[in-house]
Amino acid sequence: MTTEQDALFDSEGTPHTEQSIDKKRAEMRAAELRKELAYHSCLYYAQDAPSISDAAYDSLMRELKQIEAEFPKLIVPESPTQRVGAAPSTAFTPVHHATRMYSLDNAMDFDELEAWLAKTMEYFETQNRSVNFIAELKIDGSSIALTYKKGALIQAATRGDGNVGEDVTANVRTIKDIPLQLHKTALAGLDKVELRGEVYLPKSSFDSINAAQDEKGLPPFANPRNAAAGSLRQKDPKVTASRELATFMYARGDENHTVETQSEFLAQLSEAGFHVNPDVAVCDTPQEVRAFCEKALEDRYDLPYEIDGVVIKVNSFVDQKALGFTAKAPRWAIAYKFPPEEKTTVLRAITVQVGRTGVLTPVAEFDPVLVAGSTIARATLHNDEEIRRKGILVGDTIIVHKAGDVIPEVVGPIIGLRTGQETAFTMPTVCPSCGEPVFETEDEVAIRCENNACPAQRVERLNHWVSRGAAHIEGLGNETIVRLVDSGLVKRASDFYRLTFEQLETLDLGRQKKDGTPVLFGAVMAKKVLAEIESSKMRPVAKLVFGLGIRHVGATAARTLMDRFGTIDALMQASEEQISSLEGVGPKIAESVVDYFAVPANRAMIADLQSAGVVLEQEVVDVNTLPLAGQTFVLTGTLATLGRLEATDALKALGAKVSSSVSAKTNYVVAGEKAGSKYDKAVALNVPIMSEDEFLAFLEEQRAAN
To answer: Which band of pLDDT confidence, cut at 50, 70 and 90, is reported for residue 11?
Structure first.
């Protein structure tokens, strides 16, 4: 460490002389401080071996800040003072990765894992070569790619679709265990290198964030993974900085390694200053791999962060190159996914919810239980038939898990633990919300309330209107909508467009702060929501028609209707015959549309929307004149940049037909991440396949030509 005499500023940040500090001396001292701070950050974060106190570190940081304040031209991007300094962003620009960030194939149980291990070993045995593996914990976070130029961090990007991510450099600079300048290693000497890893939210940070949410009267985050991903994509880096994110790094974006194995590379990353997970093992046999996975499964809830499996890789980079890649994943690695965690609890009641179309859905209410990282106390039981099929009684000890580690689900009862006090559940004969009789229709399993004035249906219809696929009004969640309905401010969708700033600002959300004062919607949110409402007036009319919640009319049917009729007025005047004649519509949808617009209250709401300035029309274009007329596309897998609905809209706007199945007549298949059988069928039929990156470029070309 430097002595007090060497420093240009004292521990309080005051210059040691009254004269302006010599610029050359300041430049040298700033470089020394940056180097020393980077060294101590590495010891603290990467090697968990700090050599100075927090106070001493803070003193060095304070001195560097004072020098940079005196000489702003000395500030460089890799300075530790610049971790939070960028202005809030309005958008995340696309970033092309050095090479594709592949997803991994999954082994859902030990049989599948051992089959992959046996197949991999057999490949090398045929060449009279041995192979070993490295097992690493699979961090449940958000993938990140960091680009360094001559050792300095110049860019950070999300995974995106694997080819193109989003620039989140300003946010990533706030993550304290990411070095802004690499230590003097082989990696630091490279002209340019992309390094990859996982951003995660430690469990302690997750608990702190949710405690802060509770303090503000805001709803908690669902799980650390979602909170981490959301924190990484904040428009304001200061918000990201407050979330205490952390990282584990484990890969690079090319094959130009200066070491021979993954285990050596992890050590190289640590030496360069990165945080590397110490819980790894080099395994020579399948038995050693399985033992590591079993221990990880046993210890997962004792770790300070979330994991959802183990990644097993061939350790040698030469061997990895020999195995290569499939179209979707590397052959030299696999992710063993932990089985859904199952817990037992007691089913206390089955309540009934009413959806926007009047469907009554039974919901299991059970003693709260921690499953896969979050506490659950409710799960949908779908319908009466499902309850009978599983043999569930109120009072049962039940097994619950999260389907896909996300959606709470009741697996079934433990019959051997019954006491004889359990009772059967029967669906109500009247709506639990409005008290009107309910009906079971011949063509559905569901029981339905057909009272359009039902309060529960009203709230769900309003939730549907503001949803992303419809009017897309952010900031109006279920809690707020319930309060708007209870206060009498909103009864139907058109009422959103009459809300004033004062009404929203003073809206009581029905909760209290710790000091007993009510939680109000507030000025900031009121201003944001009013801007969102105004913006929604210009949403594509097909999305607004979908938002009306007409029975059987999904997003695709709404697009088909508006492509044909163009305006809401024309649709309201259309007959069942005209509507049912459209491809993909049919008589059931036609009947629902005509019945909806036959209700005077619905027609009155449409008139109110129009008078409020909501645009309910679109230009009708002759599809045959568009550049992709007559061409058929099939979408498969996850499209990260556009999403399925947006991609379908884009193709139809250019005249293409979007089909759900691949045939010899298909012109193109667009394959996102985790593409399934449609991808395989396209390969078998020799149908051209586009990646999402290629698809986006293709759309731009077609739009430009049009």
So the answer is: very low
Sequential DSSP letters for 348-390: EEEEEEE-TT-EEEEEEEEEEEEETTEEEEEEE--SHHHHHHH
> What is the pLDDT confidence band of residue 84, given thresholds at 50, 70 and 90?
low
Which 3 state secondary structure label does DSSP give 580? helix
In our burial notation (b when 16+ CB lie closer than 10 A, e otherwise), range 25-44 reads ebeebbeebbebbbebbbeb
Of 217-226, 417-426, 540-549, 559-568, the poorest mean pLDDT is in 217-226
259 three-state secondary structure? coil
The string of pLDDT tens digits covering residues 145-196 is 999 999 999 999 988 878 888 899 999 999 989 999 998 788 988 999 999 9
Instruction: Report d(CA 120, CA 193) in Å as an integer.
Output: 29
What does DSSP assign to residue 517? P
Tokens of 645: 């609905």
Percent helix, strand, coil in the chain (nearest 5)?
40, 20, 40
Q: Is 138 a catalytic residue?
A: yes
pTM of the model: 0.53
Nearest to 495 by CA among 473, 515, 513: 473
All residues at 6 or more sequence positions from 212 whose CB lies less than 8 Å from its CB, including other chains: none
Catalytic, out of 35, 73, 119, 138 = 138
Sign of CA dihedral 382, 469, 500, 616: negative
Measured CA to CA in angstroms, residue 385 lies from 67, 381, 490 at distances of 72, 9, 35
Q: State the Cα–Cα distance between residues 66 and 26, nearest whole angstrom.
A: 10
DSSP 542: H
Q: Within 13 Å of residue 659, how many CA atoms lie on the same side as its CB?
A: 15
Give dist(CA 528, CA 696) in Å, integer. 30
Q: Is 705 helix (H, G, I), strand (E, B) or coil?
A: helix
* Residue among 360, 605, 356, 616 nearest 464 (CA): 356
Kindly provide the residue ranges of all beta strands, DSSP E only, lying in 59-167, ordered along the sequence.
94-96, 106-107, 133-139, 142-149, 152-158, 164-166
